[in-house]
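Ticket #4471: structure output looks truncated?

Reporter: J.K.
Steps to reproduce: submitted the chain below (297 residues) through the standard prediction queue, then opened the result file.
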Amino acid sequence: MKELVVISGKGGTGKTSVLGAFASLASSKVLADCDVDAADLHLILAPEIRSRNKFRCGHEARIRMDVCTGCGGCLARCRFDAIRWTTDSGTVRYTVDPIACEGCGVCVDFCPAGAIDFPESIAGEWYLSDTRHGPMVHARLGIAAENSGKLVSIVRQQAKRLAGERALDLVLVDGPPGIGCPVIASITGCSLILIVTEPTLSGQHDLKRVAELARHFQVPAAVCINKWDLNTAMSDAIEAYASAMGITPVGRIRYDRAVTAAQVAGQTVLEYAQNSVTEDVRRVWSGVERLLNGGQP
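Returned output as attached by the reporter:
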């Protein structure tokens, strides 16, 4: 089983559009959206959810009013200002702000009345779905919830499990942007990463950061320049840098308003149009396929 992860050094480079187009071209695959902080692959693939699963991670303190003696020990010890207090007929009542609570458990340990519960918190959901281009695993992280790297790992594990159960050969992963924990959780141990960048100074800078990350984790990498024709000189410089870093250029995709129009229509660009930009995408996919199979683009 092969696993391709499409990532970018910054948001807005067209990563999800490229992955969605690959979904139109690839056969025998499972799709996975690992951009759990801001998932958007579902906007163009319209998944039909078959299974909802809670993502439990961390703990959250909750004060039981009927047991609380109002001593204020939790307020004094909380370093995250998560304890709130109000007065009711002269009685001070304490509650926990779930957004501010970091789940450290200090208030639980030091409450003399044992009035604070510490249940595992629900930080989001992950889904098993069907799409017109095959099965898909995706997720949604809760508002202000953390541990997105752990949720990414769950999505990848479930996608691989599903591929194994259905005897599918490929997992296509829409990874998160940047170089943080969710990206690391997305790329470690994968077969190939495709870095989608754009011909701008910020695109070049962020490509360098992602290239260093790929080299650190010893993950094979390829690069695709989206909207390359907006700055041909920068596109040349990016490909030269990538080659020097051992990252294989697999093609360029020109700027075309059909890509945006396809997104608005809830389609991949290959479903929406057949023109020069879709030929660019097909060439990039051919190069990626050859790399996945151990060849040269």
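Triage note (M.O.): checked the attachment and the full token line is present. Residues 148-165 form the longest helix (18 residues).
Status: closed, working as intended.
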